[in-house]
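Memo to structure team: turn this sequence into structure tokens by end of day. - J.P.
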Amino acid sequence: MVESDAKLPTLPRRAPESYKNRFGHALLLGGSSGFAGAISLSAMAALRCGAGLVTVGVPQACQAIVAGFEPSYMTLGLPDSDGQISAAARDSIAAAAEKASVLACGPGLGRSAELTDLVAGLYETLDKPMVVDADALNALAERQATLCRPGGPRILTPHPGEFSRLAKIDRVPEDRREELASSLARRTGAVVLLKGHHTVITDGERVAINTTGNPGMASGGSGDVLTGVITALVGQQLAPFEAAWLGAHVHGLAGDLAAAAIGPVGLMASDLVRYLPAALATRIA
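Reply from structure team:
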């Protein structure tokens, strides 16, 4: 059964006495030499969608670059190898996760056997909610047993290519998107958000179809922004399915507002970040 847009989640209005610790501490893991922008976009999106605190865990090799994008988040320099987070970072990540309320992993992470081991270990052992995207999904596609043993609530956000690798299929037929996404959600116990025109969000039982967004969003970094949006909403105590559904809506609406203001051609992921607060404001009760 496809959920009605009338049931689209909202965020509660903030009380006058609110303070930052009430709105989640997001820990985002990713980045590598040459790919510092991806995790930075995720972190800026998390701030723009209301996260109280944001820490970005990145290789020491690109920590200064990531810190330079935005002064409002904190950075955690992690042990690295060839410009990527190394397996030696596991204890530091676990310690940081203890202080966080929600994690995200994947944007700009890179790929290596060492990272596959690291991602699999974090996925299987950390009990905090985790949004998994990009290269973290590719790592899990190589560890199918781990994919089905999450250590806590998980939201998987693949594009069709990543989904195919996770589901071990050649491609995703357009007329089977809901069926295949629901099957993967049931198999893994995760919420699955299958990106694309009319993004599918499912926990294996409920299915929602996003109707916001436009072709101008088909540019590098757009998915990284979505990761930050969903992470922030989980940190504000939305359940995984509701956070993924509302996140897809707000992300697409930010794209629609940006396209209306500047046009769809040449729209950049950083434009989405700027329009997120206005988009989110439409879903505050």
